[in-house]
Amino acid sequence: MHNLTIAELVKGLQDKAFSSVELTQHFLARIAKLDANYNAVITVTADQALKAAVAADKRLAAGDAPALCGVPILHKDIFCTDGVRTSCGSKMLDNFIPPYNATVVENFEQAGAVVLGKTNMDEFAMGSSNETSFYGPVKNPWASDSVPGGSSGGSAAAVAARLAPGATATDTGGSIRQPAALCGITGLKPTYGRVSRWGMIAFASSLDQGGPMARTAEDCAILLNCMASYDDKDSTCIDREVPDYSATLNDGIKGLKIGVPREYFSEGLDPETEKAVRTALAEFEAQGAELVEISLPNTGLSVPAYYVIAPAEASANLTRFDGVRYGYRCENPSDLNDLYTRTRAEGFGDEVKRRILIGTYCLSAGYYDAYYGKAQQVRQLIQQDFEKAFQQVDVIMGPTTPSPAFKFGSKGDDPVAMYLEDIYTIATNLAGLPGMSVPCGMVDEKPVGLQIIGNYFDEARMLNTAHQFQQATDWHTLTPEGIA
Questions:
Q1: What angle do CA 429, 434, 437 make, to 5 degrees?
Q2: For a FRET experiment, which of 107, 122, 281, 452 has its CA 20 to 30 Å from that of 82?
Q3: How far apart are CA 107 and CA 111, in angstroms?
Q4: Number of neighbouring beta carbons within 10 Å of residue 312
């Protein structure tokens, strides 16, 4: 059952080929047996999952079942879950049990999905390798000595290892697309405002966006149908009709204009990764699409702009973790200043502290205009680059990452080298555009991803484009060695 896609599981449940209880027990058993190899799941909610599966079977039997009824999923541990620990991968929230569900979690509950548990992640979503988690690093199912990518590495590894057919994730600068590429699965970051951020613990509020991870574009369409909704509790959520993302998956792509940015194929891109991406582009040409060379001239400024804006917003968002209201508190503080200082020193990891310090500096008096203000101006230039490009093309394609998964510890002493892992993904977050990654080849027996970037609220076209590629190729069907 674990080798079936979500679309196949939905059909199997509706056809009574198996029950939700059987399905849930199967995936819970796989997590119990296999996750010690990957460390992908922080919290397993077996009792709640089986209870939800029983309820789902009753709805299926009564013929009153929504699309995802009875399908097991995992949630990234950044989404608040009522009565279930939500740690955000941090010691600071190791004991935090929310009294409410995030809107995304609530949407899946209303759709009848069965939640198996919460996935591991970089602490407060800050990282590109899943090495910063308080609960230890997640291992890539394709190579146990290599990272799965971050910050949604737990979700990506769980789907790749067939511990769940799909998972929720978040993307602030590439944290859905980069781990999807490194783990050989499909991941989608929607347009900013398409998915509610209410109940999603904030890293950088103007950049964060929730999205789905699964093995196929078709499965991501099914999950996005559930995730996307207007939410008046989130002031950044867009009140716009949500289409059926599955409806246009089988449309042909003849005549589709694909923008290929020359800046994405320059120094720093692994030659074998480039070869795999260009082979994928040739497949689109074979299906009648047209490749158009374009320029995104401010691409090189996206990383420095991001690493001013994101830490600045993080420093503001993380001030709430002070040991007073909830979360970790140091022992026996001598006074209020000692409480604040030791709680934050002990509760946050090194990468989170680094970004808080950078962000606080950028927002401080005398430096705000020089750093944060300038970064926002660069952000506008990057957005204008994309707007100009989309006057010529329908989608933009290129590599998701510069190379396949790198080994643990290989970039730990060089934060800038780690930050450059997101060189191709960050610009879409700064512009608020949707983007996704699909498997497109193997390099050194590790997967690499093709990134597809769409215009605002054009997720349906992206998914259609990705689905047509996956109908013609089999990269998304490959399974890591040793996973039966």
A1: 95
A2: 122
A3: 6
A4: 25
DSSP notation for 408-465: TTSSTT-HHHHHGGGTTTHHHHHHT--EEEEEEEEETTEEEEEEEEE-TT-HHHHHHH
**Alpha helical stretches, state H, 189-300:** 217-227, 271-286
Q: Of 454, 394, 452, which is closest to residue 424 (Cα–Cα)?
A: 452
Catalytic residue among 20, 76, 128, 146: 76
β pairing state of 166-171 and 209-214: antiparallel
CA distances from 28 to 5, 48, 83, 163, 387 (A): 17, 12, 19, 8, 45
Instruction: Report the amino acid identity of residue 106.
Output: E
- Amino acid found at 128: S
Strands of 217-336, DSSP E? 257-261, 290-294
CA angle 241, 244, 249 (to 5 degrees): 140
The dihedrals phi and psi of 399, each to the nearest 5 degrees, come to -70, 150
464 neighbors 251 (Cβ within 8 angstroms): yes
The residue-averaged pLDDT of 404-416 equals 85
Q: Does the annotation count 118 as an active-site position?
A: no
Does residue 482 register a pLDDT over 90? no
Q: How far apart are CA 9 and CA 111, in angstroms?
A: 15
Amino acid identity of residue 173, one-letter, is G
DSSP state, residue 18? S
Gap between the Cα atoms of 46 and 121, Å rounded: 20
Known catalytic residue: 152? no
Give me the catalytic one of 151, 315, 403, 437: 151
What angle (nearest 5°) sits at the alpha carbon of residue 175, between those of residues 167 and 406? 105
Q: Minimal CA–CA distance to 187: which of 421, 456, 439?
A: 439
Confidence of residue 413 (pLDDT cuts 50, 70, 90): confident
Active site residue 90: no
Give the pLDDT mean for 251-260.
98
Confidence at 122, pLDDT banded by 50, 70, 90: very high
Listing from the earlier edge strand, what are the strands of the sheet with 166-171? 41-44, 114-119, 72-76, 166-171, 209-214, 186-189, 435-443, 446-454, 395-399, 257-261, 290-294
Find all residues with CB under 8 Å of 375, minimum gap 6, and list them. 304, 305, 306, 308, 309, 312, 362
Choice among 90, 146, 175, 437 that is catalytic: 175
pTM over 0.90: yes
Q: Are 89 and 133 in contact (CB under 8 A)?
A: yes
Measure the CA–CA gap between 254 and 269, rounded to whole angstroms.
Answer: 29
